[in-house]
Amino acid sequence: MFLLAAASTSASTSASCCFPDAASSRYRGNKLELRGASTSCRQLSLLQASNNLHRRRRLGAVRAVTGGNGDGSTNLAPPGYTYSLKTNDIRCVVLDIEGTTTPISFVTDVLFPYARKNVREHLTETYHTPQTQADIALLRAQVDQDLLLADQVPGAAVPLPPPDSAVDQIIDALVANVEAMIDADRKVAALKQLQGRIWRRGFDSGEIKGVVYDDVPPALAEWHGATGGLIKTYIYSSGSREAQRLIFGNTTPYGDLRKYLSAFFDTNVGGKRDSGSYYEIWQSLGVDRPSQILFLTDVYQEATAAKDAGLEVLISIRPGNAPLPKNHGFQTITSFAQIST
């Protein structure tokens, strides 16, 4: 997987990553020339990843991995197991992000700290814009609700001064609340929307690059290409749709993966542990039966909610993911290479 989060990789490093054998390739401009044929580095990365995906399938080299954080617990996937989209009559694939397409560490070690570090600057510079005023109104409503339910809400909410107070005082209170929400990993729209705005600054400046596991891009390309577009892929995450588009639109080294994605869902459709959310997604996607939708997640409660709504479910087992309950009853995969068209 790519744990590169800052844009620090040089062009020469990118070239060597794509094709390390200097005797059989040359780097010219932003192209690699291979035996007389010129192919972009990004295309070679995707081609090599696709070849690796098929090689792993042929060898049956998909092995179970630890399902927890070094506590010795395991959630075993059958060696060589492959889930067939065609056999199971799947028309839509809905993907979680954290722990499924992307390492949890990218979110906790890169995205969250970036938002925390830059929230004050963002609010100060954009305070009087309509967009930020709308974000502040959403935060104010969330804080008011948190204060009413103080004993049930993680993290201490700080009352916000009235809207006609000094801007510095309002921003101080906003920053305190946002930092508390980030520390508590709150899955609320007010926080997620503001984080998406802040992350855009990082993606636009090149400070942040999207991160996906190596097996994800070739799988997305195969699902899209091999089925002639009959199987469509979607994202459902607690992060805002803006944040989702930023992550998949700016990956290293695969570039923009949004061409393989049909739409993005966030918690405006409902919470990810609420079965009603998956019913709403089914209604939005237009397939005849919810069982024609495959949902991939690393979270047991989300898997249960999706199953209750009638969706097919696979649980993603990746290094660093939380352990699953014993006898959880779900099929698991350790790589998207285990999903065939």
From TrEMBL:
The family database entries (CDD domains) matched by this protein are listed as:
HAD_EP (cd01629)
For this protein, the record's InterPro entries field holds: Enolase-ppase_E1 (IPR023943), HAD-like_sf (IPR036412), HAD_sf (IPR023214)
Pfam families xrefs: Hydrolase
Instruction: Please name the GO terms of the biological process aspect recorded for this protein, alphabetically.
Output: L-methionine salvage from methylthioadenosine
Keyword annotations from UniProtKB, A to Z: Amino-acid biosynthesis, Hydrolase, Magnesium, Metal-binding, Methionine biosynthesis, Signal
GO MF terms held by the record:
acireductone synthase activity; magnesium ion binding
Record's signal peptide = 1-15
- Its name, as the record gives it, is Acireductone synthase
Write the lineage as a comma-separated list. Eukaryota, Viridiplantae, Streptophyta, Embryophyta, Tracheophyta
